[in-house]
């Protein structure tokens, strides 16, 4: 099946629009990374570094792809059920568990936030707390570390935790 010249031109125009949208998305993500780096290290302006994009394998035409998907779905076998997680016979210390380092880092972050609120002696907004945490060299994953911190503090403010939520992203010590 061959494309007419008009169809080929239309397809090229669509691909160019998609490429422009991808370029905008890449630029936006680079901006977020640069902003996150600057917020993580206040006072240090770091130039934006280009992020290498891995080369994608060539993709077939969407029309032929949808045909192959329809033919595959009729004859495809169901995926095998996941095997159950192995049961550990005896408890081991946190250090042996996957994600233990992340849990320790999370506890350290919350303890530091508690210290910051105690030192300030007043309720603080999550953004203020984050500035102090970043100054101490602590980090949070994600595009918006303030929102991530707000979520963590909000969760710990429920159920009689050490924090008390006093307003929209404003926290104090429970007592």
TrEMBL record:
InterPro entries: Asxl_HARE-HTH (IPR007759)
Record carries keyword Nucleotide-binding: no
Record keywords, A-Z: Coiled coil, Transcription
Segments of this protein annotated with the region Disordered: 43-102
Biological process (GO), any one: regulation of DNA-templated transcription
Protein's UniProt keywords contain Coiled coil: yes
Pfam families: HARE-HTH
Annotated coiled-coil segments of the chain: 5-32
Bias-annotated ranges (Pro residues): 79-92
Biased composition, class Basic and acidic residues, residue ranges: 58-70
HTH HARE-type domain boundaries: 107-175
Name under which the protein is recorded: HTH HARE-type domain-containing protein
Organism (species): Methylobacterium terricola
């Amino acid at each position: 099946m061959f494309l007419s010249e008009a169809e080929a031109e239309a397809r090229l125009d669509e691909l160019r629009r998609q490429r422009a949208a991808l370029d905008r998305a890449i630029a936006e993500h680079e901006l977020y990374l640069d902003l996150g780096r600057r917020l993580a290290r206040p006072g240090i302006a770091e130039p934006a570094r280009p992020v290498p994009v891995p080369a994608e394998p060539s993709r077939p035409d969407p029309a032929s792809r949808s045909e192959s998907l329809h033919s595959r779905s009729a004859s495809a076998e169901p995926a095998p059920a996941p095997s159950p997680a192995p049961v550990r016979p005896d408890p081991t210390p946190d250090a042996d568990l996957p994600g233990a380092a992340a849990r320790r880092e999370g506890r350290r972050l919350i303890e530091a936030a508690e210290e910051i609120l105690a030192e300030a002696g007043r309720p603080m907004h999550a953004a203020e707390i984050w500035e102090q945490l970043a100054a101490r060299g602590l980090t949070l994953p994600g595009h918006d570390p303030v929102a991530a911190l707000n979520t963590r503090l909000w969760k710990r403010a429920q159920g009689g935790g050490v924090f008390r939520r006093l307003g929209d992203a404003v926290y104090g010590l429970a007592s």
